[in-house]
Here is the input.
Amino acid sequence: MVVGVDGSQPSLQALDWALAEAVRRGAGLRIVHGFSWEWYEGHELSFGINRSTVRVHADHMVAQAVERTYRRTVAVKVTSKVLPEDPAAALVHESREAGAVVVGSRGRGELAGLLLGSVSLSVAAHAESPVIVVRGAERNRKGGFGTVAVGIDEAKSAGPALEFAFAAAEQRGAALRVVHAWRCPAHEAADYPRSEDETDPHRLRAEALLDQALDPHVRAHPTLAVHRVAAEGRPRTVLLEAAVTADLLVVGARRRPGHVGMQLGAVNHAVLHHAACPVAVVPHG
Here is the structure.
């Protein structure tokens, strides 16, 4: 596990979350800090600050982060890296050998109105490993609901996100909620009579897609409680509703030939900015 820290409260929340995740996985934890971070996050330089001063500050910050982990547990092997480069680039580089990269929702110096920091968004878009953006209420961050939610679009591309979600649910002893949003244009007319018709062909196709995507994973995890949700509505709305009562929301991100890194579409942007729980972005394709 790799976690990016910058001394901000969101990064400390990410550190605590990553430590708990490392315990669940039986994995080591690497704490990473790019010591040019403050320039990229809008920090105003003052006279007397030089490269050596920034390096000393960065080393001290990371040492405090390591000490924080040891105050909580000694069951995880913790290492650290202080890198003289853009923090997003440093974390993307680290992702090549990581099981996952964990970041906070905002960094130091971010404008108060921002919902997701530039570093977190860049890492989520370009990392080679899954990326978890730790956000949301304390109950969600600390596993208070006993549920992992995963959103899927197409059965053929859902494998990596489902594998990640099934493993996350098992590691937590949690239930898994698998969500697929479907829409029927006729239903969106203002005068359309609302009903819960279980024979609606759009609903039936959505349920069949869930069954197709889940069948091999359910067979491989026979003891895990899995709930299928074929919900009518816009994907972003359905996923944000699922996140309210989830400890983790998992989504996939498609890699496209000729592009660098994961391509984050509108739905992924929406959940990364607004979800009530941590969000895991898992690359596929």
Observations:
- The CA atoms of residues 173 and 246 lie 13 Å apart.
- The two ends are 23 Å apart (CA to CA).
- Confidence is low (pLDDT under 50) at residues 39-47, 110-114.
- The first strand starts at residue 2 and ends at 4.
